Amino acid sequence: TNGQRYGIHPFIVQIRSLVDHSSLPGITLGDIGPKFGYNTTDNGFLRFDRFRVPREAMLMRYAQVDMQGHYTRPPHPKLNYLTMVKVRSGLLYSSGVYLAMACCIAIRYSAVRQQGYHPGENPTEVPENTILNYQLQAYRLTTQLANAFAFWIAGKQQTELFEYLNSQIEIGELDLLAEVHATVSCLKAFSTWACADGIEECRKSCGGHGYLRVSGLPDLFARAVPMCTFEGDNYVLIQQTIRYQLKQLQKHRLHPLAAIPASFDYILDLESFAMQQLVIDEPLQWLDPLLHETILKHRAIRLLVELHAQLEALQDQGRSDAEAWNDLQSEFVRVARAHGFLVIARTFSSCVTNVPDIELRAVLRDVYNVFILRHIEDNVSEFMEDGFMNGIHSREIRVIVRDLIANLRPNLVPLVDSFNFSDSKLWYSVLGRYDGQVYSALYETTKKDARNASDVTPAYKYIQ
Amino acid sequence: TNGQRYGIHPFIVQIRSLVDHSSLPGITLGDIGPKFGYNTTDNGFLRFDRFRVPREAMLMRYAQVDMQGHYTRPPHPKLNYLTMVKVRSGLLYSSGVYLAMACCIAIRYSAVRQQGYHPGENPTEVPENTILNYQLQAYRLTTQLANAFAFWIAGKQQTELFEYLNSQIEIGELDLLAEVHATVSCLKAFSTWACADGIEECRKSCGGHGYLRVSGLPDLFARAVPMCTFEGDNYVLIQQTIRYQLKQLQKHRLHPLAAIPASFDYILDLESFAMQQLVIDEPLQWLDPLLHETILKHRAIRLLVELHAQLEALQDQGRSDAEAWNDLQSEFVRVARAHGFLVIARTFSSCVTNVPDIELRAVLRDVYNVFILRHIEDNVSEFMEDGFMNGIHSREIRVIVRDLIANLRPNLVPLVDSFNFSDSKLWYSVLGRYDGQVYSALYETTKKDARNASDVTPAYKYIQ
User: Fold this and answer.
1) Which of A53, A123, A136, B116 is within CB 3.0–4.6 Å of B329 for a Cys-Cys bond?
2) Do A326 and A399 lie in a common domain?
3) What sign has the CA pseudo-torsion B388, B392, B395, B396?
């Protein structure tokens, strides 16, 4: 306004006639065409050609332009992050729910399907094995189930945090916004990635039947996977987290007594972390949530400090800020992940602690343990690289995980039942039916297929 | 036959009338319905009800049943593995080609698309960055490109090996069959997984445009991903490799002088591997293919020996063979992967060595180095767990990888051009066009969409 640029602002603009719905002069629009999924959502393209947008079209709750063209800044420069925080918290939550749906379908089907023998088993003596009794099947699906619980719980917590944040902003308190934005950015990234990959793992665990549309799983994947690229591409989002992490580290370096946001408290270990070495006296310690916190905090500060040192080293070699930042992008994922999984682990663990029922709490504690130990197992080099953990630890973790998976086996179906998804919520997945009547239902669906309407295809006459 | 079971045998059976194409009495058949992909392939279901299959319907090249019902075994009990070996070699090859297609689309588009700034860059001073110049984008796509080369080359080599195997079998030589079957089983598994995941990574790297069907990438994924579950589910296939690995280990233990198949030669390091420790005097050593071989062989024997020890320990604790096998299934992936990637690395490296053109060889050597070092980077804990490698090594590898990625950046487009895919071979992907005219082509495709045939949807009259 008045020849000055103020950045991006939201507008709500009339693009079609209210009389006959035709597009207004100067407007070109249309549907962008068929997509992987979301085909009932009419994503469009839009072009303005000498089209005048009136001042009233601007959404002026925070930033404002008056009749004279004077611009008033929003009360806080980051206020427009608020919507993004809300949407991204929602995607974290959705990641948990979508993944839970996939787990429900795959675990129920795996409890129904019987196939194959172990080496040495005689087909004439024993029936084929229920596939959920194969350790590898249970291992794969329990891992995904634990992730589903983790993201669902973290999503619920972040959504509540958003409500609190919003109420704080109403009274002019904006301190929390930057912290929550930095955390939610990476939680959105890691949960949506894990959700899409996890749905695929569930789908593959159903074998060829998971490739059928009636399983619900292909469509569920196509629905969930764009969360990785929309509302901020994941690889861009993690850079928001990194920037905030580095800023807090810098602050602590300069002012050791300055307050550090609670969820970034590992930065306070700056002086002590390098001396830490994990000591495990007996394997049961691996189930201690305080130990997990120690481990995750150590990784978070260690990776952050190393990234910071690498950035500085490159700048000392004459690379500009932008160049050094670009050079090290491939290091970012693990640094942001260290923060994100610390937040999720804390949320999940304290949620379990607050479960009143003792027996239920014990089961959910096992689910939490699978979540955190599988995460450590999959990324164990990040804990070993600086000598904090060693190869005895990594082997011990795998043994514990195998025990946890075996323990949880009888609870897998009850755990997915606990989500209380109706068959319709599971998109009438043939494999995920609550009644377990998979094969008759599968056969019934083929009768509805147009290609099966007649025994001989109508096209037969052309090839006779 | 004659009341005796002889296992599964192939038949070719007439199921429809030759007169009017109707299904024969006793036959129920139909299409299984819509799938994730392959919808132009009419996968069907089939039920026999008191339907007599004549003896002539049996494919009797190897196993035979004569008029009196006498059964003749095939000359080698594993002969029916031959078809599986052929098909799985083909899938390894296809994994390379499909992934190369995705890389071609994503890399070309990433060289066209410009978006965003690095921190500190001023939008009024510089244009937006070409996204392939973001280090993370190049890192992601170069990794996939290197995998594509690796699987393509390994697939070609295994297909040639199959031809040789086939010619050997013609003259009664069957020694190679079991070895090739064990290797191809895991190569099919790891290449198809990496192919599907890699196509998704390429698709995501195109942002929202990768979600459009006209990008070709969603359909490419749906086409490639069932390779993970068909022709032997990957998790089942790796167990074939494990069983053979264990058998060779056992053989070597009992008869240290017995011949071990060449591709399993790491088993000969049984006595020495535990004393090995990697010594790197200067970073350039990381580019030495002999060093890679040493590293991969060490992992292969180390993981195999540990798996074997765990199996024995469980049996000593009273678990049956089948139970112990099941208990440890979650350990199998890494043991089989250690074998598979050793085979691929050797094939890839020797292929590069044989490239006559020096400059081309240097570029392909970099691609090979990205392949092998990214693999080691992603699985570095497997090399560190027993103290063979350390945290200085893992950090050095990441630095080298970043240098390699930066070096290869100018060659990325030429490398995907070298596949010589026509636009039609890329399914007319709008993003992967050879001419780079992405945006005008994208806009043109929307004009062909039925939803854009009229400015106002015909449904408008119902909502007026």
Assistant:
1) A136
2) yes
3) negative
In terms of domains, do B126 and B141 share one?
Answer: yes
Indicate whether A277 and A397 sit together in one domain.
Answer: yes
Q: What are the chain A neighbours of B119 within 8 Å (beta carbons)?
A: 243, 321-322, 325
In A, minimum Cα distance to B334 occurs at: A378
Cα B128 to the center of its chain, rounded Å: 36
The number of residues in chain B equals 464
| pLDDT, tens digit (0-9, with 9 covering 90-100), for A274-314 | 999 999 999 999 999 999 999 999 999 999 999 999 999 99
ipTM for the complex?
0.96
For the purposes of burial, counting CB atoms within 10 Å of the CB of B75, is it exposed (0-12), middle (13-18) or buried (19 or more)?
A: exposed
**Domain enclosing residue B90, as ranges:** 81-240
Instruction: Read off the pLDDT band of B244 (50, 70, 90).
Output: very high
User: Within 10 A of A326 (CB to CB), how many other CB atoms are there?
Assistant: 20
Q: For residue A367, give both structure tokens.
A: 């689910």
| Residue whose tokens read 């490419």 | B220
Phi, psi of A73 (to 5 degrees): -65, 155
CATH of the domain at B373: 1.20.140.10
Over residues B317-345, the mean pLDDT reads 97
* Long-range pairs of B444-453 with CB within 8 A, sequence gap ≥ 24: B445/A33, B445/B214, B446/A30, B446/A31, B446/A32, B446/A33, B446/A45, B447/A30, B449/A30, B449/A31, B449/A33, B449/A34, B451/A30, B451/A31, B451/A42, B452/A30, B452/A31
- Cβ atoms within 10 Å of A274's Cβ, excluding its own: 15
Structurally, chain A folds into a number of domains equal to: 3
* Residue A200: active-site member: no
CA distance B159 to chain A (A): 26
The per-type count for chain B, helices as H runs and strands as E runs, is 14, 4
Gap between the Cα atoms of B57 and A386, Å rounded? 65
| B35 vs A contacts (CB less than 8 Å) | 211-213, 218
- Over residues B448-462, the mean pLDDT reads 91
Q: Say which residues have a Cβ less than 8 Å from residue B254's Cβ, sequence separation at least 6.
A: none
In a domain, A450, yes or no: no
**Of A158, A213, A167, which is closest to residue A186 (Cα–Cα)?**
A158
Residue B86 and residue B66 share a domain:
no
Q: How far apart are CA A301 and CA A272, in angstroms?
A: 10
Whether B226 sits inside 8 A of A236 (CB atoms) is no
**Taking Cα atoms as reference points, which of A236, A118, A141 lies closest to residue A185?**
A236
